[in-house]
Amino acid sequence: SVQEMVKEKMITTVPPRYVRSDLDKANMADDSSGLKTEIPVIDMNSLCSSTSMDAEIDKLDSACKEWGFFQLVNHGIDSGFLDKFKSEIQGLFNLPMEEKK
User: Which Pfam families does the record cross-reference, listed alphabetically (predicted)?
Assistant: First the structure.
């Protein structure tokens, strides 16, 4: 990974394919480009509601097909648990490549 190559001093600069110019960034953020810039949000309460379930399922279907991910809200999972989970995941990404294998 690039992270490992930097850590082991195998490279000293960011590979060009990972570099974006300010112009590229401006174009990506430009709403007129037709790109969607907001992550889809799926409401768990709506998924469990008989009156709004169908519409929310359609949103979920679209999010999965078009984005491949989404933000889930009103899921009832404790924020402390989520913080611990994020910390553990970050720890996994910070492990040396040899330990990840």
Answer: DIOX_N (PF14226)
Structural domains counted in the chain: 1
Helices (H) and strands (E) in the chain, counts: 6, 2
Degrees to nearest 5, angle at CA 70 with 91 and 48: 115
Most distant pair of Cα atoms in the chain: their distance:
57
- 11 pLDDT band, cuts 50/70/90, is confident
The DSSP code for 68 is S
> What average pLDDT does this structure show over 11-36?
68
Whole-angstrom distance, CA of residue 33 vs CA of residue 35: 5
Q: Output the pTM of the full model.
A: 0.56
Buried b (16+ CB within 10 A) or exposed e, 11-30: eeeeeeeeeeeeeeeeeeee
Contact (CB, 8 A) for 40 and 67? yes
Q: How confident is the model at residue 71 (pLDDT cuts 50, 70, 90)?
A: very high
